[in-house]
Amino acid sequence: MNFFDARGPTAWSACATSVLPVPVSPSIRTWPSAWPRSEDIAEMGLGGAMSRGADVVRPHLNIGEAAARGRLGAFMAGPVETYAEERDNLGRNGTSNLSENLTYGEISARACWWAGVRAMEEGKAGAETFLKEIVWRDFAYHLVFHTPRIVDANWREDWDAFPWNEDERISEVTAWKRGRTGMAIVDAAMREMYVTGRMHNRARMLVASYLTKHLLSHWKIGLDWFEDCLVDWDPASNAMGWQWSAGSGPDATPYFRVFNPETQAEKFDRHGRYRRAWLAEISSAPPETARSYFDAVPHAWGLGEGRGYPGAPVVSAAEGRARALEAYENRDF
User: Fold this and answer.
1) Is 242 annotated as catalytic?
2) Is residue 203 very low, low, confident or very high in pLDDT (cuts 50, 70, 90)?
3) Could you tell me the domains of the chain?
4) Catalytic residue among 113, 136, 225, 244
5) Is 201 a catalytic residue?
6) Of these residues, 159, 219, 225, 244, which one is catalytic?
7) DSSP result, 244-285
8) Mean of the pLDDT values across residues 300-326?
9) Which of 242, 244, 278, 281 is catalytic?
């Protein structure tokens, strides 16, 4: 649901031992005699920058408070039981999918918390893991409040001198943005985001690791691209998540841990269901989810099924790991 796993025991322990207030629905007891004039949403042109992509993304959205509560209820009625095991499975719908609703305030973190508490009291195995993810999200806001630099600068300031590439125009970064790195699991994830406005949590870790470690490009490039593309964009949890992956944030993954996209694909998409769902070029009969990517991207990208899939990765798993570790060896952390 959020960007990455909650591993900090302090935040979880503090919430687990506290009694959080039960959420209440606001009620208006008196009505004004005249409502102020509202802006015309259509005049705002909020989706203007999306061009034709808006029509592709719209069917994947779950909009409104009622829809959010329905989604939470459906999750607690079934999938929460196996959430701890299934949330990393790219080929299955094992998460709550509430991120967009939380982003826009259509449901509160407190409502999700209490639903998780009830599920845990009922003995549902995955409920505690779900609660930890809720804590992780709010912990991100705690960090933004106390260390606001986390949204646009390295939380660990000793990373300021690390020689990340900061030019997003280079071909490797362009390939990453467009889902054409030749690393299938990475490309599938980037296309899922462009079509649906969301990306599976495990996939976010993989694409972030590939950008910051295999491509040695600054996490801010990825953060900005996610801000442009995600409908569930959240400045706090996404900033903390990107820095978690890069190694520059609090409670971050060890900087020397470099995810191997190929072994990650084998582990979390063993039967290739996720890759086939989003990569039209690798299938003789691609599903609509994969084909719709070409309906969403700008014409200027010159992409289409007939172009074919890249024959080799822009940076292979082995090459990326080697050059990342070399860069780390030359850095005094």
Assistant:
1) yes
2) very high
3) 9-19+51-147 (1.25.40.80), 171-329 (1.10.579.10)
4) 136
5) yes
6) 219
7) HHHT-STTPPPTT----HHHHHHHHSTT-HHHHHH-GGG-SS
8) 94
9) 242
